[in-house]
Design a protein that fits this description.
The protein has about 200 residues and is of the alpha/beta class. It has helices spanning about 1-10, 25-35, 40-50, 60-65, 85-90, 95-100, 125-135, 150-160, 180-185, and strands spanning about 15-20, 55, 75, 110-115, 140-150, 170-175, 190. The strands form 2 sheets. It has a 4-stranded parallel β-sheet with strand order 6-5-4-7. Helix 8 (about 150-160) links the parallel strand 5 (about 140-150) and strand 6 (about 170-175).
């Protein structure tokens, strides 16, 4: 996003920058450009943190990673909120058994749900590898990976599943706004990410 922040600064337009990934900025630079980042681009990247009106973080630990690039007055922590009333209303009207049946699970299934956009650091591949071992000894275990989208990582997951003993018991569910349903049918919610600030999941 930094080119947009840079453009706003050059145009004299105030900007707010919400940063929710717990990577050191040097890691961002390496992921995007490797060792090929031009010194001028690096200078503009680093300078953007001072040019924005505010940097907004969801966790103090994430803000600390960027402290050397901005002033304390620019840094704000805004905790995620959870609408408990909406969750309670959903649960009050829920027939969990019927929902599990509609999604392809019977009452005896042990459903493990992983919620997160498919990408390497969310570690869906590691979850599938663990499931492959567990599925051999737990025949009631089912896995739902929610957050599937077209990508080379997703293609790799499909190939991995084709080689799994229990691959037919794994669902790849597209990114969906109807996430409450997946929480409702889960017996276990798993977050296997390598790095998170505070996942929305």
């Amino acid at each position: 996003i930094f080119p947009a922040v840079d453009a706003a600064a050059r145009a004299g337009v105030p900007s707010l920058w919400a940063i929710h990934e717990s990577f050191d900025p040097a890691v961002f630079r390496y992921i995007c450009w490797g060792t090929r980042m031009h010194p001028h681009v690096r200078s503009r990247f680093d300078g953007c943190f001072q040019s924005t009106r505010a940097l907004i973080f969801e966790a103090r630990q994430t803000a600390d990673l960027f402290a050397h690039l901005c002033s304390p007055e620019q840094s704000f922590i805004v905790d995620y909120g959870v609408d408990v009333d909406a969750i309670d209303a959903y649960r009050a009207s829920l027939d969990r058994s019927a929902l599990r049946s509609a999604l392809g699970f019977d009452d005896d299934s042990v459903v493990v749900v992983v919620v997160g956009v498919f990408e390497p650091r969310k570690a869906q591949a590691a979850v599938v590898a663990a499931f492959d071992e567990l599925a051999v000894v737990h025949d009631r275990l089912r896995l739902a990976l929610v957050g599937c989208h077209p990508s080379s990582y997703t293609d790799g997951l499909r190939e991995q599943l084709a080689r799994c003993a229990g691959g037919d018991r794994v669902l790849l569910v597209p990114i969906t706004p109807d996430i409450y349903a997946w929480y409702a049918v889960a017996d276990l919610l798993l977050c296997a990410s390598d790095i998170e600030s505070l996942p929305r999941s």
